[in-house]
Amino acid sequence: MAKLQNALAKKIPVWRDEISGLIKKHGSKKISDVSILQAYGGMRGVKGMVCDTSEVPPDVGLLIRGIPVGDLTKKTPEDTFYLLCTGELPNAKDRRALSADLAARTSVPSYVWKVLEAMPKNSHPMCMLDTAILCMQRESKFAKAYAAGMHKMDYWNPVLEDSLDLLAKLPTIAAGIYRLRFNKGKRIGPKKGLTWAENFAHMLGIPDPSGDFADCMRLYLVLHCDHEGGNVSAHTCHLVGSALSDPYYSVSAGLNGLAGPLHGLANQECLKWILELKKQFRGVPSDEQLTQFAWDTLNGGKVIPGYGHAVLRVTDPRFAAFRAFGMAHFPEDPVMKLVDKVYTIVPEVLKAHGKAKNPWPNVDAGSGALLYHYGMKEFSYYTVLFSVSRAMGMLSQMIINRAMGSPIERPKSVTTKWLLDQVK
Ligand code: NMX
Ligand code: MLT
User: For residue 56, which atom of ligand 2 is closest to its CA?
Assistant: First the structure.
C-alpha cells in the first residue's frame, strides 16, 4: 500500500491548503440559487456539494480527474482507482504495486459466506452484496482507530486501509454470490498473478477461451467507476460517511441506492426490455414495430430503461464505449444489433413524447448486451458488477473527504407552509 498511500500523503497537504485558502478568500461567493421547483424536484442542478474525483459536464459526459472516460478505455481498474484518488495515472510500477496489494487482501472472512448461504434462495443479488459488505463492518480499521481516539487529520489513512480491504474482497464476494445464487457450482478462489479485473472474471467462472470476457470485465469495471458526487449511490455514501460511519456502512448504504431501477438497476431492466422486444417480434423488429413498442411503454406510465439522465444532455460516452466494444467484437450478435436499433429509434420517440430532458442513452442502455453475449444471462446480477466498479468512486471520494475534514452533511429543509409564506 505504500505507493498509493505515499502519493496521497504528498497531495493531501496541498489540497488542504488550496481549499482552506479558497474558503478564507472567497467563502461567501454565491455559486447557486435554488428555486421552489428545484426544492421539490430532487435538487436537480443545485450546486451544493464538492467532488474532486470526477465531473460530468452535461454536453460532454464523464471526466475522471479531467480525463474523458473515452480516453481511459484501455486502462485497468487499478489505473482508474489510483487516478480517482490522486489525480494522476500511476506508472507501471505503481500500478503493479496496487495490484499486488489488492491481491494480498482478497481473503473473505468465513462468516460472510455463512450469512450469504443463510439468505433466502430468491434474494436479489444486490441485497446479498449489500448484506455481505455490511456484515463485514466489524473488520473496519477506521472504526477501531476512531474508537481509540485518532486525530481527525489522520482519518483518511485507516479509511484508505478499509477501502483497499473492501475493494480487494469485493470481486471474491461478488463472484461467490454469482455462483451461489445461480447454482453455478463451488466458489472459485482468486488466482496468483492476475489483476483485479482478471481475477474477477476468473472467479465468476464464465468460459473464456479467448480472454475477451476478461477484457470486457476490465472495461466494465473502468467505465462504471464514478460519476461525480450527486448521483444517488455516491451521494448516499457521502452522506452516511459524513457522520463518520466507516466505509463498510457507507458503501453498503450507497449500493442500496444503486439497487433502484432509476439508478443502477436500470441495466437489468434495460436488457429485460430488449429481450421482451425481441420475443414479441421474434427477432429484430421493423422501425414501426419498435416505435410502437416504445410508445406502449411510455403510455403504460413506465420509463424506457437506459435512456434519459439527470445531468447528461448527450449520448453517454460510457454507452458509446460499450457499443464500440460490442461492434468490434460481435457486430452480428442479435441482442447487440437490437441495442443499436433501439439507439436509432428511442431518442426520436422520447423527443416526440416531450418529457425527458435528455432523450439519449445512458451507461445502462448497452452494457447488458455485452454480458449476455458472453453467457452471463442472469440479468438480476448485472447491478452487482456495476457495484464492484462504483465502489472505487465512492471509496476514493470518501478517502478525500476524510482527508479534507469534510463536515457532517446536513442541508436545511423547509416546509410547504414556509414556501407558501415566501410567495404571499
Ligand atoms: N423514459 C420515459 N420517461 C422518462 C425517461 C425515460 N427514459 N427519462 C425521463 N423521463 C421522464 C421522467 O420520468 C419525468 O417524468 P414526470 O415529469 O412524469 O415525472 C420527465 O421525463 C422529466 O424527467 P428528467 O428531468 O428528464 O429526468 P430526471 O432527471 O428526473 O431523471 C432518470 C433521470 C435517469 C431517472 C430518468 O431519465 C429515467 O428514469 N430514465 C430511465 C431509467 C434509467 O435509465 N436509469 C439509469 C440512469 C443511469 N444510471 O445508471 O444510474
Ligand atoms: C451514474 O453513473 O451514477 C448514473 O449515470 C447516474 C447519475 O449520474 O446520476
Answer: 8
